Amino acid sequence: MLLDQIVQEEFEIEVPRWGQKYYVAYPVNNYNWLCVHTKPRFLVIDLLVKAGVFKTDDLAKRLGVEKFDTDETLAEKLGMPSTVFVKNRNQKSDRIRLRAKEDFDVRSQSFIDFMRDAFKSFPK
Predict the structure, then answer these.
(1) Coil, strand, or helix at residue 48?
(2) CA atoms in the 13 A half-sphere facing the CB of 89
(3) Run of H or E including 111
(4) What is the pTM (predicted TM-score) of this model?
(5) pLDDT by residue (tens digit) across 38-53?
C-alpha cells in the first residue's frame, strides 16, 4: 500500500497494526494516531490531532478536496469526490476524516505536508 510506504518513510511510529478487522492502525505512544480504513473505491484516513488546530474549510482548500457535508443524503455522500471533515472528540482532541477517492494523490506535497503537521499536533 502506497500510503503505508509514505507513513513508514516520513514518521517515527510504532509498528503498524495490520491485525485489525476493518482498518490498519499506526500507533504513537500506544495511541492510534492514524487509522486507514479500506473501502472498495476509496480510503478513509482518520487522524487524531489536538483540538482546534485544524478547521474543515481550511483543510479542504489546502488538500484540494470538498468539505464533507453531514446533512447530505447517503446517495449524495457516496457520490461526492474526495472529502475532509474535522470533528471534535473531546477538550483535548479532534478527529480528521479524509475520504480519499481515486481523484486524490497521496503522493502530493500538500498531502505530505498536511500529514507532517497532523503528526506534530498529535495530542499524546
Answers:
(1) strand
(2) 14
(3) helix 109-120
(4) 0.87
(5) 888 889 999 999 999 9
Closest CA to 112 of 63, 70, 78, 58: 63
> Which backbone phi and psi does 12 adopt, to 5 degrees?
-90, 100
- Judged against a pLDDT cut of 80, whether residue 55 lies above it is answered with yes
Strand spans (E) along the chain: 23-28, 31-38, 42-50, 66-67, 83-88, 93-101
Q: Residues 51, 96: contact at Cβ < 8 Å?
A: no
Residue 116: helix, strand or coil by DSSP?
Answer: helix
Helix (H) / strand (E) element for 62: namely helix 56-63
Cα radius of gyration rounded to whole Å, the chain = 14
